[in-house]
Amino acid sequence: MTQDWQSDLENFFSKLEASDVQKQQQEQAQASENVAFFRSVVTPAFDEIQTALQQHGRQVIVHLRSDSGSLVVSFNEVEELNYSITTSGLRVFPETRSIDWSDGKRVLIEGSFRSGIQDYSVTDISKEELIAHCLNEYKLGVANSQHPNA
Q1: First and final C-alpha spacing in the chain
Q2: Which helix (H) or strand (E) holds 72?
Q3: Structure confidence at residue 148 (pLDDT)
């Protein structure tokens, strides 16, 4: 009888340790996927957006890290867009920060790239999809605000 519970306890801890190792490997794989996403999708998309908006007199500041990125657009010293991309696991989230010109307060809008079920990951979002989403947020934000530059 003594051997049964001791074996059971050893088996329990062996499985627990294996689960921890597997979880750690999964987290490392996710981090690698996220780095690849920011390197191959976000960076070139933000570069293209920056170039296009600068051709229209906008000041564009891009901040990139291995797991997040932001793009801030200003015109005549007025912020028009503050757009960022963040990840959680393999999920990717666009966020738009804007100013409500009626009261001057900042508004954070957590968005999604697609409508419907949000069952996509960093491997599913293309550079073109990111560019289209960002520019749509920019155009909506400027057109629908009581923005001094609109």
Answers
A1: 81
A2: strand 68-75
A3: 55
